[in-house]
Amino acid sequence: MAVPLRYNIEGKTDVGLVRSGNEDYLHLDKTNHVFAVCDGMGGHQAGEVASMTASLTLQILHTSFQQELLHDKRLQIGRTLPPSGDLLLRSIRLANRNIYNKALVDTTLSGMGTTIVAVALYGDMMSVAHVGDSRAYRLDQRALVPLTADHSWIHEVQESQNLSREEAESVVGKNVITRALGVRDTVEVDYRLIRVRAGDIYVMCSDGLCGFADDDEIFDVANKARSDLKTMADNLVQMANDRGGSDNVTVIAFQIEEAPAGDLPEVDVFTLPAETTEELAAEDEWVEKIAQAEEEFTPTDDVEKSAESGGNKLFLALIFIAFVIVAFAIVYFSDFHK
User: Fold this and answer.
1) Which has the closest alpha carbon to 169: 208, 214, 112, 216?
2) How far does the chain reach from its first CA to its final CA, in angstroms?
3) pLDDT given for residue 191 in this prediction
4) Would residue 33 be called left, alpha or beta, if left means φ above 0 and alpha means ψ between -120 and 50 degrees?
5) pLDDT in tens, 251-275
6) Cα 217 from Cα 235, distance rounded (Å)
7) What DSSP character marks residue 302?
């Protein structure tokens, strides 16, 4: 009898301590074993629209159009991948096109975009795809092993000049990502396929965490809570907030409990090139289909963005306390002057 795929997973997204809205999106599709972190950008509400659109596009395609999308010969990946990997790459491309087209129609959303790091589990294999600087790691016994490489100026300077991150930051200054979903009509996606084993722990995050803590610091916090994934996610978010909470932060932590043995080979990192003109035309047809589905689609409970994240709760609590103090003062001085 085949061993079923089993895992435990926890996720948390938090607005932080400074920003008023959360442009991150936490995507936990346990039905299709697809998890993603999206970090939106683009000004007032536009970043939220971009990250939400990326998540919703993935869920619609994985829930309602899997076979149809996989058999569309106009959209070719050009690699031999498990169906889950092929579908993930096609879905990310279509998320890019969907966000881009929405911004063309609604000028208030002009310039919006989002990063994405996404994984799809299939048997004992895991597809890892990303665009931007949201990250995926494997938590080993002694270190945090990166599964992605940032698409950013800082990372490019690090690689080209063999510098540390601190040295690259001194050269570049403010970090700028070099790829994102929705900012151009086409997109390049990095992909790899790795084998997972029982006991493996993986961590995914937005740069609200990894932008304020290095890999060793993330490892130390995660490693202390490796027996409790919820505590791990909570503590990593708390670390980001303890360092000022100036950005939204999202963390996913999951552990493989059982995985059926397979014979698929791993696939080294490659970059899926930008689409051709013909592929873009086909994608536009798909975006219209997705738009129709969006009107009637209800996200499952597994795919969520925390509307009451920690920062918002703190903000609301402070408002409530201030209200109580003011009310008390009014009553006190009213009685005092009688």
Assistant:
1) 214
2) 83
3) 99
4) left
5) 999 999 999 999 999 999 999 999 9
6) 12
7) T
**How much is the pTM?**
0.88
A 10 A CB-CB count for 138 gives 17
> What's the pLDDT at 303?
65
Low-confidence stretches of the chain (pLDDT beneath 50): 306-334, 336-338
Q: Which residues contact 11 (CB under 8 A, 6 or more apart)?
A: 26, 28, 35, 233, 250, 251, 252, 253
Tokens 């589990």 found at = 121
pLDDT of residue 159: 74
Q: DSSP code of 16?
A: -
Q: Which residues contact 78 (CB under 8 A, 6 or more apart)?
A: 272
* Torsions phi, psi for 203 (to 5 deg): -130, 135
Helix H or strand E encompassing 181: none
State how far the Cα of 109 lies from the Cα of 45, in Å rounded to an integer.
Answer: 8
- Compute CA distances 17 → 133, 207, 247, whole Å: 21, 15, 8
Q: DSSP letters along 140-153, please?
A: -SS-EEES----BH
* pLDDT of amino acid 314: 42
Q: Rg (Cα) of the chain, in Å, rounded?
A: 21
**What pLDDT, on a 0 to 100 scale, did the predictor assign at position 173?**
65
Token pair belonging to 325 = 């103090």
Q: How far apart are CA 335 and CA 268, in angstroms?
A: 75
Burial letters 32-60, b for 16+ CB under 10 A, else e:
bbbbbbbbbbbeeebbbbbbbbbbbbbbb
Map residue 175 onto helix, strand or coil: coil
